[in-house]
Amino acid sequence: MSLLVKPPRTIPNSVLGEIFTILAAARDKHARQAQAVPMLRDAVECIKALSTLVCVSQRYKQLAMPLLYQTIVFSRDAQHRLFFPTLRQNRPLGRLVKNVTFFELRDYSIRENQAFPSLIDERRWDNAPTDPLADDVQRLWGALSLPERRELNDNVPEIRDAVLELFTIIKHLPNLMFLRYVGRASPTMFSAVLYRILCMIPRWLALPMVKSLVEMEISGRTCVTWFEKIFGVFRPPMLRSLSITYTGKPPPDKALIKLQDSFSTISTIRELRLSLPHFTSDCVMPVLFEIDDLEVLHLDLFNITEKTRHENIWFAIRSRCDKLRDLRIRFKDRYWTKVQAPHADLIPWPITVFHALAALDLPDALLFGMQLGNERDSWVTALPPSIQVLTVSAWFMKGDIPQRLKELFQDAWRVPKLRTVVVRERLGLLPLIKAELRRVVERYTHRNIAYSHEWF
């Protein structure tokens, strides 16, 4: 009797599943992180290969189809408009989609207007298409006022249709967990139309769009409107991570975000990243209110110098100190001068109460001005012992960086878990300061603390 084991006639489903997962993860950073899959060199070819495998057999189709549609990236102008009729014909595909990334469309050229038929017909309102997606397009269009509809019909009908179809697609993805919208830094007709329709989003569309969302990343010029809608009409019931970043040149007349009296925060949020020129410190407390388990907080502040406003920020942050593990506060450089440098006295220390804090990122004026106890004590005494990564934005006190870094290395025993120090700067340091920094780092290599330099 032979002791050799006969090889299987077919590849087991478990092995095929692993292969298909690696191919599908080529364009999905979340899947790569979850599966510990490295970034493949040619993501496009991987997806093409997976698409081909779907056609091999019914078995391959059952294994590959959920992975193929799990993540959709609309990175070209026509992609989501091509997906719209596909979803109309095969609505079950929408249940497979969990992650969507949409890159804001450029302005259409005239010759592209005829590429897609329009579902909007003002002259035959009662005879509109009857399938669910087309009906939702028509209903969303009807939510706009008559003057707005006339203006969009006359000026940008093709972009109007593109925006309406985008929102309708999102509504018909019932298992969508991650939504990323990447806007452009310069004004576009698409962002202008998106702003108008986003302001008029009705409740019947808002809830189905966000009911299963766990993570949202919004960037671009319309992010202020997104912020107001997320905390207003949308209110995702399962949202855990929210990132909103304004890109481009902020408007000269920065209209401040005014929270409504009925405003209430989203208590499920665990990670919050906000970079809004319209966002004031008075908004921080209402947004953070009742978020008991906040773990990550990143705030970019724009020209806020009044002491009371600073105190609002730090009071709100300190109220979340129990579980906060990543705190980052940065000042947008174009709005701050050396005269406006914030003073560390405005921070209600000690920051050592942040027992779980592992990553801290502060401007030099705040970080180096910290003091605890005797005036001769080093600023390092005010750092939480749990710190593992410390980032300093070299801005107002560039010349003090080498000495402060030396103090940190000398008193490293106060922060036993510190493993990485990062210095950020926008403009190059003077050659003398650079040389001194190198000497400090080389002198204390025995501390086993990594050092890196970043530019912004």
UniProtKB/TrEMBL annotation:
<protein>
    <recommendedName>
        <fullName>F-box domain-containing protein</fullName>
    </recommendedName>
</protein>
